Structure formats: C-alpha cells, structure tokens
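User: Show me an example of a complex going from sequences to structure tokens.

Assistant: Sure. Here are the input components:
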Amino acid sequence: MIVRQTLALFLDAYREMNARKLFWVSLVLSGIVVAAFAMVGLSDRGITLLWFEFRSNFNARLISPDVFYKYVFGVYGVGWWLNWIGVALALVTTGGIFPEFIAGGSVDLYLSKPVSRVRLFLTKYVSGLLFAALQVTVFSAACFVCVGVRTGSWDLKFFLAIPVTVLVFSYLSAVCVLLGVLTRSTVAATLLTLLFWMLAFAVRTTVAGLTTAEVAGQIERRAYEAKHANLDRQIATLEQRVAAGEGPAKTSLETVRRQRGDSEARRVASEPARENVDTAVGVFRAIYAGLPKPAETGGLLVRWMNVDTTSVDEEQLRKIDERNAAAAAARASMLGGLRDRTDVGLRDSEVLRESARVLRGNSTGWVIGTSLGFEAVVLGLACWVFCRRDY
Amino acid sequence: MTDRRDMQSTIPYAAPSNAVPDLAIDLRDVAKRYRGKVDALKGIEMHVRRGEIFGLLGPNGAGKSTLVKIMMTIVRATRAHGTVLGRPVGHKATLARVGYLPENHRFPRYLTGRQIVDFFGAMAGVDRPTRRKRAGELIDLVGMTDSADRKISTYSKGMAQRIGLAQALINDPALILLDEPTDGVDPVGRRDIRDVLNVLRGQGKTVFVNSHLLSELEMVCDRVAILLAGRVAMQGTIADLTSHQQRYEVEVAWNGDAQLAERVATAIGAEVSPVTITPPTPTRTTWGTPAVARTFLRGALADGTWAEVENATLRVGFTDPAALQPLLDKLRAAGMTLARVQLVRPTLEDLFIEAVAQDGGGR
C-alpha cells in the first residue's frame, strides 16, 4: 500500500507540474541556454559563435575545448543558469505546492486516507523536488550530447549536475515549505524564501570579504614581525657600532629607533581594526555554518568535474600583479630590501590567492553536511507544524 | 496492520475490546478544545449502527464538521474514546475501509473526474485493476460517464459533488461519511444522491450524513442526532424522537359559526381556556387570502390528555386510534361533520427547531 500511495503522489506531482505553465517556460528557457551553449566554441585564435570567430587571448591554446565546455557548463550552465535562474524559477513554480495542499477542502481528502501525516508530508516534499530533478535532467542530458558531439568527449560527469542542483533546490525548498505551512500563502512563502536566499548569499559574500580582510591582516602581522625583527637586528648592530665609538652610527641608530617606534605605533594603532575583522569573521563564519550553502554546493560540481581552471585564475592574478607592481615597488622598504607588507590592500595578489585557498578549503562533507543539517532542522519544524495542526 | 504507529498518538483511545460489534461508530466522550479555549465539542456520545443511514444535524457552529473531521483524523481530538468500525478513533489503517466526502472540497483542478477517482482510490490503497473497474462503475452510478474525462475545473458544483461521491466509494468502504453531500446540487442531483444512498444501504454499508438540508435527511435517514453547542441534544430514529409530539388532528366542517371552537371543546368535554398569542400569528391562508380571526383554546380532556382547538381544528395528544373514537362519536353526536381525521407526525425540521429553541438558539 505504501508503494501504491507513494507512486500515486509522485504521479500527481508530475501532473501538477505539467499543468503549470512555468514548468514549460523553464524547460523552453533551458533549451535556449543549451542552444547558446552549443553555439559557443573555442578555436586556436579565439572564441567562436556559430561560424563567426572573435580573436582573443582566451583560446584553445590557453585552455582545451574539452575543459572549456566543462568549465562553461559548470560555471555558467549550472553555476548561473541552474543554480540561480533555474532554482528561482523552480521556487516560483513550486512555492504554491504546500499552501495549496494544506488549504481547507484539499488537505482533508489526503488526511482522510490511510497514510500517516509524516509520510504524506515527506512524500509531498520529495515530489516537489521532482520539478528540479526533471528540469536539470533534461538540461544535463542536452549538454552531455552537445559536448559529446562537438568534442567527442562523452563525460558522464555532466550528470553530476542532477544531484547538485536538486541539493541546492532542496535547501531552499525546505525553507519554502516551512514558510508555506506557516503562512498558508504562496506569495508570502515564495517571496520570503527568495529573501532568505539573498540573505544567505549576503552572509556568504560577507564571509568572503571578511576572510580576505582577515588574510590581509595576517600578512600584515607577519610583515610587522619580520620588519620589527629586522629593525631590532639593525638597532643591535648600530648599538654595537656606537659602543665601539663609531660616531656616524649614532645618527643612524636614532633614525632606525625612530622608524622602529613609528612602526610599532602604526602596528598598535592598526591592530584593533585587525582584531575587529577577526571577531567579525568568527561571528559570520558561525552564522554561515548554520545556513545552507547553495552557491558553494553548486561550486562543488566544478570541483567534481575536475575542470582545470588554474590557467584562467593565474591569468587574472597575473594582471592584478602587474597593476600592483608599481605601488608595491613604491612601498618597498629601504631597510634590507624588504617589501613593506604592513599595509597590504585587499586586491593584493597574495591576499587573493590565500583567501581563495581558505574559502575553497571547506570540504565537500562540510558544505553538504551543514546544508543538509539546516534542511533537516527546517524540514523537521515544517513537518512538526504540519502534523500538529488541525485542518 | 493495527499497531500504535498508525494511530495519532495524542488521542486517548478506548481499547478495541470495548467495541460493540453491531456499531459502525461508537463515540464516547469525544471533546475538542481549539486554541483560544473554544470548546467545539464537549463530550459527544454517539452510536451509529452498521447498515443504517445516520444523519447529523445542528446549527452552524454546533461542531458537526469538527466531529466528522475527528473521525477522519483531520482534526485531533482533545479527548476521544470509542471506536470507528471497531477500531479506536484516530486509527489510520481503518480509514482504508472508510469513504469520505468533505464539505467545500477542493479537488486538484488539473485532474479529470476519472483521474480524481483513481488517484484517491490509490491513496486509499486500492490496487490498480480494482480501481479501474470500480471507477467506471461508480462514475456510471453517479451519472458522470459523459463528463468523466473532462478536467474538474470545467465542472459545475453539482458535477464535482457527484465525482466527490464516486471517489468516496472507490475503496468499497464499509462506512461512508458525507459532509453536506447535496450542497450546491440541483433537485435532480439531490434525488440522484438520495438514490445512491439507498443503494448503499441496500448493500449493507453504513452512511453518516452531515447536512443542513433537513428534508433530505428526513427522506433517507434511519436515525439522526442533533448536535447543539458541542453536545448531542438528542439522537434516535425520527419516529422515536418525534413520538412525544405526535397527535391526532380532527377538522370539523366549518359552518360559519364564530363560536365553533368553544362548541367543539364543549362537545368533547375538554377543560380549555383561551390562549392569547402575542404577536398574533396569522392563520394559515390559501393563495394570499387575508388571515381570519383566530380562536385558540388549550387545555386537557377529562383523562388529562392535552387538547387544543384552533377554530375548526381539534388536536389531541393521542397516538392510539382506539382512544380517539369516543371523541369522534361525541363530535358527531353534537351534529358536527368531520372533514378530516389525521395522525400528524412532526417533521425533522419541527424537531430541529424545537431542539434549537430549547437550547436557547443553539448557544
């Protein structure tokens, strides 16, 4: 009986989706994205669009077409289209499932059947995920065929987009279900879920920004330590020379001591700002840990597809290095040829490299585990409300 | 399977051993207090026998729908003892043998009538071949064969109600609960639904009907209960419930005598006195003719039986025709012509109005 009821609910969910115009709108839009994906290519001289070629340094000699397609699929196809626009469309389409389900006269028909409320709730929730699963399956299959035909590389990893996108959608869908059960309003549930999504994104962006500032602070601290150690060594040497009766060394000693004092004063003055950053980043990381991570989960696909984008990143960083070179040279210390790194900017290439490493350091288990933990709590709460309520 | 996992754990339930075998519904001390301390039900005692059509009446807010919803596990009782089909109230697995048509139902608008019957059959645990076979039969039974493959969004209220009835029967239930089944249905549709209910009774099914349409219930129900302010005010067969109000009416031919009422009372030897009706109730008129002055006498016969005379009509509290004969003889002996002698039984509506009035308007 359980299988029969579950299949009936899934079939009903499919029919419900089929009846929604947005389902087909999303599918058509996915088709357009796949078509655009198929039109773009990479040649030895640059980027191609249908039979047109646009000369660019970004060409097949910088990155292989195979990797390029996977990169475009992972970053733009899944990262932007599926994980942002597709998920937003899915939320708008499925936002009404629970409010309509628990409406008076509707839920009565379901609750009066020999099926427990918990099972009914969970089956209905999972059937809502079918929307995302169907959409992404069609999209991934189309991209898989498209890349296979163009490059001869039939990489089944394209289908990893299905669990990744369904996961991303499930985090937000759980929030939408909770809000739908609480407010009984499709509009309220959908809009508040989109707002929550933006909030989660804002927290992630804040963590990223604060991490960059934290890394810059750590580099500055290390720079102060190195600089002060260097100055202390110079002071010790100059003191020995002064003690040996070397007259001109006395002036140099005073100059270096003044530099040491000024530097320490700058360090002390700037330390509270670094400490504030450390505190803020700790707080925001804790908040972030408790929130779902749709963007980071979507990013896992690029990681799993082994898309080697290092050359692209390094190209960008090299440009940043060139821009910063002049400023860095101007700030180079006269003392011992050391670059003064006590005031590094947030666009410093070392800061960017290190903060990127830190941000990418979150393991797959942590990203998915904490997100699923959030989903379980939210879904559990929604289920509890659904089961306890009188209709 | 009837283990505890299938039950709503918060509902206290009586042990199944308490179940009375011939009762489809045996409710004892069913209470519901909503948040905000609103007592919708205050200890319902109700018994529905297997194979009968049982009607539940009550004014708005009496708790009728709450009671039905408790039996269907849609509302969680604050307190509920008793059984439904021999199982504790709230026992989920039992619902496989129960059919339900809710009031103001909202079927998925993207489904056709046939798909609705099939879908809710699957939810009730009916296997596919059986669903297909029964769906066709039931759709035919409720007269929806021609429209069964149209989307329900194109249905009228009455058509949706017929499909609702079919889906309630798809699992071949032993007990069918219908909440306002004739709501929005035209007279022909109401007659059809009544016919279906009679067919179900003929098949030995128990039907529990919650309806505002008293005349509908009166035509099909074996027994009824009247719910007032969360309590069962009365329950039983309509005949039992109305027996205390049954009476004989004897109409004497009107001869233009303004004192006829007094003469009738004198003829039968009744001790009566005039009753002042305030405000004066107009005498029943025919086709808008002006109401005539009304004489209303009330009292008792020599043996203590109540009696009243209204113009040319005598009413006495007999239900035994033998007891009436001496009175008829006295009237004839007094030269009066008897135009009509009739045993009058109050309608369900009379009973309902009386119950509500006794309860202070149902509050």
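The lines above are the inputs; the final block is the predicted structure for all two components together. The mean pLDDT of chain A is 87.
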